[in-house]
Amino acid sequence: MSTRTAASTTAMTALFSGLVFGVGLIVSGMANPAKVLGFLDLAGLWDPSLALVMAGAIGVGLVAFFVANKRTVSFIGAAMQLPTARHIDRRLVIGSALFGIGWGIAGFCPGPALVALGMGEIKALVFVAAMLSGMLLFEMLEVARLYVIHRITISKGQS
Known about the structure:
Helix content is 74%, strand content 0%. The protein is mainly alpha-helical. The chain is globular.
């Protein structure tokens, strides 16, 4: 398979997967922030439907990872690239907490926010702009952090 054909196949598979995911979010109501906030409102009118959606997603994910771990290439012939990191560090915990706080405030996480943006939701536009700003800020801080580490490593090597 040529590089161009492989890239086209990968792009079409990603597009199809994204469309299926987006339709699933719409059908399940998870693109509606009120639904998500209802799930997080344990003291009020709690809506457990998100837990059922999560349980279904976890089940599908478990099967998918079980199958993926047995393969060396994907179904479309691409190399398998599964996560290898296993440790939990401070950066992961802080990032997870920030994600959860943002999710609880806005009622969006990235996937549903993009679906809601596609549906013309103004709240989603604000969320996606804030999300992209946060991603840019993280990248800038990460570059600065790596630069400092590099400079410290160089200075220790010269002393």
